[in-house]
Design goal:
The chain is 54% helix and 8% strand. It is an alpha/beta fold. The N and C termini lie far apart (80 Å).
């Protein structure tokens, strides 16, 4: 008897019914299903009695990366029905597609992903012919709601049309050649009994032709199951899935949107699905305090029935139901297209009623695995660790990092965090290597009502059998993806320290070193240096203090920053806060790591750095904030240059504040040391500014003094009072002004401009000393730029 091919659309109730009826009628010897062939030996596990949706999760590791893919099933998936109906009919049931790790599936996260772009032209013609919006509506019109008589013939005609005009690549060719070998072998083994083949409809025309052609293997028997190449490992496990992950409205690659609707369609038929989901939408809207009356409900059902007849459907389709609900329940103008007229996630600002309609038809079902389902070692390891460390109870948790048990609990929680296991949220703790916070606060949610934690743990098992191994593998992968992003790589290294995996993150450190050599972003390099330096200097708690691996990163980052800073040129501009932060990190590295290795340092060349700083500070074509920072760096490294003289030389109103921002970012102690007289010089210079010059300089001056924390500002205020011989409270000077000083400055400028306008009209005397129109324009631009920078400080 000939092989019966059933081409299906994944997750189609109509196709699932056809598969079940065909298998029950033919009672075949073999049922062959598109799916990972290496899981065939574990079909008993797949058929234990799970509550779908579930998925086969497959992974492979090759030392460089972890590849992951899913083969999802819901209760109405044709493949799921084929497995169960085939087993019930006594057939030999097999998956016949290549394993997930095979190169032909390398770029496919979802085995059952549709590839409609390959046949967009033919579907476009069909959409125009049937006057529908998209392929989902077309599919419902042709198959889900249409008469079941002649369904198999219509499916064959549809898929023949699609395949006849589609481009196929080497990946499809390899998969179809392999599946065809199984089909020929099954036909030879069936001894005249039927063979049923259930595959995606796109593959069916090619498989039919390949199976009918002469066997190139000469009837060599059953094909071999490919094995991973040496040096790689992989496996597959069942995971609970959810309708949220299946739904096209949340970006799923395959199948149809609105899985709850199709679940109801499969179980109750189109009329039952429409009635139940109409009530569900109304209940959701009422829960959100949206007024929906009984009359509205009747109107929705009436409009749905009317649209069903108008569109020539024998029963309400999904879009008939949705359009009827919108017509009855939405009285406002809609700002965007209805989401079911296309495919993809909901756009921002969608109407609340539309959101609830989509949610009701999408559903919130979560699959559940049978209790006998095997799980990867990581799942059991995590359960044991949570119990051992007392992390299996819900509620807030404070972890003391200075205590051995506290540090162990922190590392376990951070490993769960980097693996993205739901239910473990850190609320506070150290955020950088220099952050000497000695405790963390976490919140643990022990409940897992949606099965997300179970699925996440099974999927994380792809990275390793223990928490430490899995976290280290994830961090290595993040480091590889970061490329030359040194700030991102430094963040990965800090996470490795928090996880206690720093000694396993040599690849991350190597990537960071390579990224440093190619980096040109001064701010990113500075951020990276700040993180790594803090870990190398301070982190005896996390165990990274004095790490030779981190030390080499610090040395390379220091050299690169000095080289980049010396090449910066440019005219006056608002202070670059990222650049100043990088210069401050450079200062800290030179101050704390210049000692020779024998004395616990890294042997950084402070003399060479001081020379670079002197040259930058004296160069007139260097931006003022960098000149000030370079002068501060030289001072911090022991240069005895006259600070008061340097400040006087930088006191041009348009650049003074920016120069001071650089100085204060690196050497604000010079200001606090009132015995050196620098505070008096600053007071003298500011006091000597004309009113216009002060207005120009004010925004940048305010930004510059933002580098002083409140206690140091109080010291400056006290020193200023002493310098002027004024008795009073320093804190009184620091109280917030009733009116923003910038607003006062803008008002004074406006007042002066009005005075000039009146003088020009002969209505008043001209101001003696005001700015020119050009000066006012330049001042406006300057104040705008500095105000923007100041808001970021």
């Amino acid at each position: 008897m000939a092989v019966t091919f059933i081409g299906v659309r994944h997750h189609s109730p109509a196709c699932a019914r056809l598969v079940r009826e065909t298998i029950e009628r033919l009672r075949p010897a073999h049922v062959l299903v598109e799916g990972p062939v290496d899981f065939t030996g574990r079909l008993d596990e797949l058929l234990l009695g799970h509550e779908p949706p579930v998925a086969i999760f497959s992974y492979h590791r090759d030392g460089e990366r972890v590849g992951r893919s899913w083969t999802p099933f819901c209760g109405y998936s044709p493949e799921w029905i084929a497995l169960h109906a085939g087993r019930a009919a006594g057939a030999a049931v097999r998956f016949i597609d290549l394993p997930a790790w095979h190169p032909a599936l390398a770029d496919r996260d979802n085995r059952y992903a549709d590839a409609e772009k390959r046949y967009a032209e033919v579907t476009g013609r069909l959409l125009r012919e049937f006057a529908v919006d998209n392929t989902d509506v077309l599919w419902d019109h042709l198959f889900e709601i249409a008469d079941a008589d002649g369904l198999a013939e219509r499916l064959d005609a549809y898929f023949d049309l699609l395949r006849g005009e589609a481009d196929t690549g080497a990946d499809d060719t390899a998969r179809e050649a392999y599946m065809a070998r199984w089909i020929r072998a099954a036909e030879a083994d069936a001894d005249g009994r039927p063979v049923v083949v259930v595959t995606g409809g796109f593959h069916t025309p090619a498989l039919r032709a390949l199976a009918a052609a002469p066997d190139p293997d000469g009837g060599a028997g059953w094909p071999e199951v490919p094995a991973p190449t040496d040096g790689t490992e992989g496996g597959s496990f069942l995971v609970p899935y959810s309708f949220r992950r299946l739904d096209a409205f949340t970006g799923y690659q395959s199948g149809m949107p609105s899985p709850e609707y199709y679940e109801r369609l499969w179980a109750d038929g189109p009329h039952g699905a429409a009635a139940a989901l109409t009530e569900s939408v109304v209940a959701r809207l009422r829960k959100r305090r949206q007024a929906v009356s009984t009359a509205d409900l009747i109107a929705a059902r009436t409009l749905t029935d009317g649209l069903t007849r108008l569109r020539g459907h024998r029963a309400p389709a999904r879009t008939d139901l949705l359009d009827g609900l919108v017509a009855a329940l939405v009285a406002d103008d809609l700002d965007q297209r209805l989401p079911w007229t296309s495919r993809g996630p909901l756009g921002p600002g969608a109407h609340p009623a539309v959101v609830e309609m989509v949610a009701a038809l999408s559903g919130d079902r979560v699959g559940r695995l049978h209790t006998d389902t095997p799980a990867p070692p990581l799942v059991h390891h995590v359960a044991a660790e949570l119990e051992r460390l007392g992390l299996d109870k819900a509620g807030p948790l404070t972890v003391k990092l200075t205590q051995p048990r506290g540090l162990e609990r922190s590392r376990a929680l951070h490993r769960l965090r980097v693996l993205r296991i739901p239910g473990f949220q850190r609320e506070s703790g150290p955020d950088s290597g220099a952050d000497q916070v000695l405790e963390e606060r976490w919140r643990i949610d022990a409940a897992d009502p949606h099965g997300e934690r179970e699925a996440a743990l099974i999927e994380a098992g792809a990275y390793g059998p223990t928490l430490a191994d899995a976290a280290a593998a994830v961090l290595d992968g993040r480091g590889a993806r970061a490329g030359t992003d040194v700030e991102g790589l430094a963040g990965v290294l800090f996470d490795a320290a928090l996880c206690g995996c720093a000694d396993q993150s040599g690849r991350v450190a190597a990537s960071l070193a390579a990224g440093i050599g190619a980096a040109s972003d001064v701010a990113a390099l500075g951020a990276a240096l700040e993180v790594v330096l803090g870990l190398w200097r301070h982190d005896r708690v996390l165990g990274t203090a004095g790490s030779p691996m981190f030390g080499s990163v610090i040395a390379e980052c220091t050299d690169r920053l000095l080289w980049l800073l010396e090449g910066i040129r440019g005219g006056p501009a608002p202070a670059d806060l990222g650049r100043l932060r990088a210069a401050a990190a450079l200062r800290d590295a030179l101050l704390h790591a210049s000692a020779p290795p024998s004395a616990g340092g890294l042997g950084l060349d402070a003399d060479a750095a001081r020379g670079v700083a002197r040259r930058l500070a004296a160069a007139p074509d260097v931006p003022p904030d960098l000149r000030g920072a370079a002068f501060g760096l030289a001072r911090a490294l022991g240069d005895a240059a006259d600070a008061a003289r340097a400040v006087r030389g930088a006191a041009a109103p348009g650049t003074f504040g920016d120069w001071l921002a650089g100085l204060f970012a690196l050497a604000r102690q010079d200001v606090l040391d009132t015995g050196g007289g620098l505070l008096g010089v600053l007071d003298e210079l500011v006091d000597g500014l004309t009113e216009h010059e002060f207005l120009v300089a004010l925004p940048a001056l305010r930004q510059a003094f933002e580098f002083f924390p409140p206690r140091e500002r109080e010291s400056i205020a006290h020193g200023l009072l002493e310098h002027r011989g004024v008795r009073g409270s320093a804190r009184a000077l620091l109280r917030p002004a009733a009116v923003d000083p910038l607003l006062v400055a803008e008002a004074r400028e406006l007042e002066e401009r009005v005075g000039r306008a009146l003088a020009a009209a002969g209505l008043a005397d001209a101001p003696e000393d005001g700015p020119t129109e050009q000066g006012r324009t330049e001042q406006g631009r300057t104040e705008q730029g500095r105000t923007e920078q100041g808001s970021k400080a």
